[in-house]
Amino acid sequence: METKKISKRKLQSAQTREKLLHAGQETFIEYGFQKTTISQIIKKAKTGYGTAYVYFKNKDDLLIELLEDVMARFYEIANMTYKPTSKKEAYDLIEQQSILFLDMANKEKLMMQVIEEAIRLSDNVRKKWTEIREQFIKRISEDIAYAQKNELARIDVDCSIVARAWFHANEMYLWEIVKDVKTPPIKEIVHNIASIYTGGLYK
Amino acid sequence: METKKISKRKLQSAQTREKLLHAGQETFIEYGFQKTTISQIIKKAKTGYGTAYVYFKNKDDLLIELLEDVMARFYEIANMTYKPTSKKEAYDLIEQQSILFLDMANKEKLMMQVIEEAIRLSDNVRKKWTEIREQFIKRISEDIAYAQKNELARIDVDCSIVARAWFHANEMYLWEIVKDVKTPPIKEIVHNIASIYTGGLYK
Fold first, then answer.
1. Looking at CA atoms only, how far is residue A62 from chain B in angstroms?
2. Among residues A128, A129, A124, which one has the least CA distance to residue A60?
3. In terms of CB atoms within 10 Å, which of A82, A102, B61, B116 comes out highest?
4. Which residues is B153 bridged to in the sheet?
5. Which of A161, A171, A180 to mutate to test the interface with B (most CBs of B within 10 A)?
């Protein structure tokens, strides 16, 4: 009996949290980050104020949760198996990753627009974004080190400096897509940047 | 006589403007963009309110002027003669430009920190920054086109997409230097990114 009771409570708790996140996402997308208030979100989620504050102490907190959710989907792409056996294979994998990454930005455009605003305006969100970015750079850095170890990539370059530059190039195009700047088609962007990158890095 | 009178007025006008810009720079650096008010700047410059508003309607305006001043120094670097006759020469020129660019960021760190904040918080400043960035990208794009025309660079890539990615990589390192993120030495950053870039782009 005791166990069941706890489970039920846990389930309810997860549902409340989920309702708040969902309401938060909708409100942020409708009004933008700055204009959204936590009260609006609580009202939309139809939860009590006291309850809501158990889960999120402010809108920054809630946005960070949504940011982590959406970035987890990006990170799955960055985390794809990377075991190329030739320069051609390396190019294909990198091109594929980069296309998936920018396509995801396009697909999640509305939420990414809110995130862009929040990164600019909130110190907490920006700090979180920096942490997430470092995870991506670390992952790319490992891929480069793998290629160096397997004598596919030049060993006279520092994998972490190069990884950062490669992520930067992709990230800047990501924001241009998100902000609806008139960009060339994603495939064209990626073909160009991936061929310079692999051309310069791989032997 | 009439001419002299106008000249004197013009000189005084230039001096007032200069005083306001100088006071603005000092105030922004001391308090940051958000916390600075136009009244503080006017007080520091010891000009009348009415006079001040002839030159700058708000602090965004004044900051944009300072932004243009500092970016003109960066643009001189981007605008250096670029007529390489070999891949090695291209690398040396690009490396030199990139080092000068990041050194300038380091030298102008205090003002660039203010600019970074202003770009995030002010729509007007951000718009201006986008315009300035486009000038840099256009200039790099022309350099790549020159190298392509002279059969030094691959012609199967789009010079403007590649120029944007190269500027992005440099710009992101610029902000890391400005924000005092623990970065590797500038020469090491540049050696790595320039050698991947020229290695991939040049024949």
1. 21
2. A124
3. A102
4. B202
5. A161
